[in-house]
Specification:
This protein has about 210 residues and is of the alpha+beta class. It has six helices and five strands; from the N terminus they run E-E-E-E-E-H-H-H-H-H-H. It has a five-stranded antiparallel beta sheet.
Length: about 210
């Protein structure tokens, strides 16, 4: 993919853009010595982003097709560097939020209650909050509606994980009683279950 300059000629009845960017993609080979090119322009009109594909042969625009719906634009939006960076931060924060819980039980048996209590407050809880922040950023860039079933369910799962870690796991870390050990095990189990359910929702996006 290469950046190309705008064509000097325009197809009849094709729109003019106040601001746009042309990208050129190599097309399929033709019997002639030159290849046709496919260009698309991204215009911002009335706060609505329109992707306009201009099919041209020998660099002469021939027709214009508008892609106004989210499904047609998703592939282009998701390829932006900002979306990829947010996706990476979302994954890293999830690893920081859920990973340490695998160590809680053996560390508590070893008597490292103060260590895991600090780890939970200084790493796990902030990471859970950041995971939501980056996730909402991804949803905003990807133009996913909050009413989407998979997104609404993901937020609910995150709220459950946050509540369990604050009200169930956190108090159990510094408590040496048998009941606290049971609560800790239950909290860790619910948290990891929420991770699995959240991954299923985000990968397959049911109802999208």
């Amino acid at each position: 993919m290469a950046i190309a300059s705008p064509p000097t000629t325009r197809a009849p009845n094709s729109p003019s853009f106040s601001s746009f960017t042309f990208l050129a993609l190599d097309g399929a080979p033709t019997p002639t010595t030159r290849q046709p090119t496919t260009r698309f322009a991204v215009s911002h009109l009335n706060n609505v982003t329109q992707f306009v594909f201009i099919f041209s042969e020998y660099d002469m625009p021939a027709s214009v097709t508008y892609l106004d719906n989210v499904q047609d634009m998703t592939a282009l939006i998701l390829d932006t560097s900002g979306y990829r960076i947010l996706g990476l931060l979302h994954i890293v924060s999830a690893m920081a939020a859920f990973g340490p819980l695998f160590l809680y039980t053996p560390l508590k048996k070893a008597g490292e209650t103060a260590t895991i209590a600090k780890l939970h407050l200084r790493l796990v809880m902030p990471a859970l909050v950041l995971m939501w922040v980056f996730g909402m950023g991804l949803a905003g860039i990807g133009e996913w509606k909050m009413s989407s079933p998979w997104l609404s369910a993901s937020i609910l799962i995150w709220l459950i994980a946050l509540a369990v870690n604050w009200f169930l796991v956190r108090p159990s870390l510094s408590d040496e009683s048998p009941s606290a050990t049971s609560k800790l095990a239950a909290g860790i189990g619910v948290t990891h279950l929420s991770l699995v359910v959240g991954l299923v929702l985000m990968i397959w996006k049911p109802g999208a």
